[in-house]
Write a structure and sequence with these properties.
The structure is a single chain. This protein has 14 helices and 15 strands. The longest helix has 30 residues. The strands form four sheets. An eight-stranded mixed sheet has the order 1-7-6-5-4-2-3-11. A three-stranded antiparallel sheet has the order 8-10-9. With about 425 residues, the chain is α/β, with parallel strands linked by helices. The protein folds into three domains: about 210 residues, Type I PLP-dependent aspartate aminotransferase-like (Major domain) (Aspartate Aminotransferase, domain 2); about 80 residues, no CATH class; about 80 residues, Ornithine Decarboxylase, Chain A, domain 4, CATH 3.90.100.
């Protein structure tokens, strides 16, 4: 065996076990895994919880496969992660995208509102499910209490991608959880904000609008039949840690955060619940993009997400008071050096229309004959690919949508700023892949 791998892993490789007697079976748990999942469900307030070993992606795929089928109408927040689009390809459902506003100063998206959801349900009464992301990457939350009531009055389930809000259940200072707000199916990416390993997540069910049996069937379609038990043990351990120490850990961290002042403006839209551990700072006042400031801070400090006019930091379990002091000092140093620069001009990113039906469903676009053409010739053509600046993976164009002038301009602008275009067959964007219809 490679000596470096042995040095890094030690005896861990010897404990890389599979479905042995006493270890239970994730595909049909009846023993220790079933008990661990039940503890997690009881702690956060769901009726049932499933451990996921291929990230929140697997949970979102299963949620769609369990609630909608070929030709069914589904309302989807336009700021969803690209894994939801993959779920639409698998399920064959026809989406209507719910638009989001964009803060004109920050160039960042707001969460989906109750009025937009209500308008979508009124315009499309045949809707079978609603899928939203809350919180957003910057920690902004939709008014889920009002949205859940609206969706349930229509008689359909609400699915919430709560990937970045797994910690909300463990301290009263955090926004209300999606489950407490009334969501039926909730997917949490535990590895993003809790103390567990990468690609671990949890799927929650509450109520009877969605069948638990159907969710289990769907998970067995999209999850590996050979889950890594280190991942499962990490999930169990994180659940125990949060149940026993979560409020204490987060209470201490929240107190530390309150003691620091940041030299750059912090994005806190009034009237919108926000995760206090997401720190989004505006970089435009000192003439820097978020990408440029991110490079200046590295390698000592690595931010969560740079954008054209801001930089987002994710504070979590591993954050110490010393780390926060280091961040504050480094930001003050950069501010002192660049504060005499002219501010950046506004970055015009248009808001997304409230309700928009694509030319083709993602499944139709996926199986449609395709070809590549120069970017300049793509205007009004139907995209065959979902292109998402990464992180966080929110698509600028979704397969099945037309390339408009604003979409092409946004792609070019974000590429010039340094974003990585995930999903593009040509990462340079010299060509775009379109549907031949």
């Amino acid at each position: 065996m490679e000596p470096l791998l042995r040095a890094l892993w030690g005896t861990a490789l010897e404990q890389d076990l599979s479905e042995l007697p006493g270890l239970d079976n994730l595909a049909q748990p009846t023993g220790v895994l079933a008990e661990a999942q039940a503890v997690v469900a009881a702690t956060v307030g769901s009726d049932r919880a499933w451990f996921l070993v291929n990230g929140a992606t697997g949970g979102l795929l299963a949620a769609l496969l369990a609630t909608v089928g070929p030709g069914d109408r589904v309302l989807v927040g336009r700021n969803v992660h690209r894994s939801v689009i993959a779920g639409l390809v698998l399920a064959g459902a026809k989406p209507v995208y719910l638009g989001v506003g964009v803060d004109p100063q920050w160039g960042l998206p707001w969460p989906v509102t109750r009025d937009v959801v209500a308008a979508g349900l009124a315009a499309y009464p045949d809707t079978k499910a609603v899928v939203l992301v809350s919180p957003t990457y910057e920690g902004l939350c939709s008014p889920l209490l009002e949205i859940a009531q609206c969706v349930h009055n229509h008689g359909v389930p609400l699915i919430v991608d709560e990937a970045h809000g797994s910690h909300f259940a463990y301290h009263p200072a955090f926004p209300v959880t999606a489950l407490a707000a009334g969501a039926d199916v909730v997917v949490q990416s535990w590895h993003k904000t809790l103390g567990t390993l990468t690609q671990t997540a949890v799927l929650h069910l509450k109520g009877e609008r969605v069948s638990a049996e159907r969710l289990s069937q769907a998970l067995n379609l999209v999850q590996t039949s050979s889950p890594n038990y280190w991942l499962l043990a990490a999930l169990e351990g994180a659940g125990v840690q949060m149940a026993q120490q979560g409020e204490q850990i987060y209470g201490r961290l929240l107190q530390w955060v309150k003691t620091f002042e940041w030299p750059l403006p912090r994005w806190q839209p009034p009237g919108i619940p926000q995760d206090p551990l997401r720190l989004t700072l505006g970089t435009w006042p000192i003439g820097l993009t978020g990408f440029a400031l991110d490079e200046l801070l590295q390698p000592q400090i690595i931010a969560e997400f740079p954008s054209g006019r801001s930089l987002t930091f994710c504070l979590g379990l591993g954050t110490t008071q010393t780390m926060l002091e280091t961040l504050a000092d480094r930001l003050k140093s950069v501010y002192t050096e660049y504060c005499h620069n002219a501010p950046l001009p506004p970055l015009a990113i248009p808001s997304i229309p409230s309700c928009q039906e694509p030319a083709l469903s993602p499944r139709e676009a996926y199986f449609c004959p395709q070809r590549s053409i120069p970017l300049r010739a793509a205007l009004n053509e139907i995209s065959a690919e979902t292109i998402a600046p990464y992180p966080p993976g929110i698509p600028t164009v979704i397969a099945g949508e037309r390339f408009t002038e604003s979409v092409i301009a946004t792609l070019q602008t974000l590429q010039e700023l340094g974003a990585e275009m995930v999903g593009a067959s040509d990462p340079t964007l010299q060509t775009l892949r379109i549907c031949k219809v």
